[in-house]
Amino acid sequence: MSALNLQVESVDELAKIANEVRIDILNMVHKAQSGHIGGAYSAAEIVTTLYFNEMKNLDPSDPRKPNRDRFVLSKGHACPVWYSCLSKLGYFDRENLDHLRQLNSMLQGHPDMKSTPGIDITTGSLGHGCASATGMALEGRLTGDGRRVYSVLGDGEINEGVVWETAMAAGKYKLDNLVFIVDKNNLQMDGTSDQIMPLLSVEDKFESFGWNVVSIDGHDISQVMKAFEAARNYKGKPTCIVASTIKGKGVSFMENVRNWHGKAPSDDEYHEALAELTA
């Protein structure tokens, strides 16, 4: 297994990797005929930038390195985006991508820290991942190991009350080594986020809990990079990056279509999507 350079500086190169990640996701979900493409695609630029540019002290040969930065995918159903990045970095053989959601596979339908190298915490029950990330950040504060902790949440996920309990705690302890990224694609399984449970201003909510807030286009890698830089430089408060995204981004017939929350493509849809991603 060979790892790519963990510090890719070029926006164009990061965009190329994000597109490759989308192809991996398509291949995984099509082969499994199960999985979540829409929310994985909306987070592709965010997770790619985290792993190939932002996070420090990552070592695929030592996944539990004590001073590593941590990542928690709180919206765990979007895990194919995480699996692709980890495989590209050499955490496990890429042939494992062919076994998504199969019995005894290391790549289950939600991230499993006991099965998959590079997974810092098991997630899937919405709201609990970001709470775990906050605990990791607090531990880092207490040990002084210099870690930063990043967690991606869905905008539908933040309907969960535990998210706001977590936001209160992080604000209270002024965890400036903690970054939440809200993947705001405005679609859930059963409809738009505004229809299911209106969020009003996500930015105002986090600010009211004592967070530094940055709003960006989550598909503009230069904006994503600048937001992470701003979070690193902001002291005394945790940072929430509210990233406006498009569910299914990258494949025209999947974009902003609710059914692609958890739908696997047919053979024809697979080939049409692959043609767009490889054009």
Automatic annotation (TrEMBL):
Keyword Cell inner membrane: no
Pfam families: Transketolase_N
Keywords from the UniProt entry: Thiamine pyrophosphate
Transketolase N-terminal domain boundaries: 16-272
Gene3D superfamilies attached to this UniProt entry: 3.40.50.970
Cofactors: thiamine diphosphate
Family: Belongs to the transketolase family.
Protein's UniProt name: Transketolase
Protein's organism: Vibrio algarum
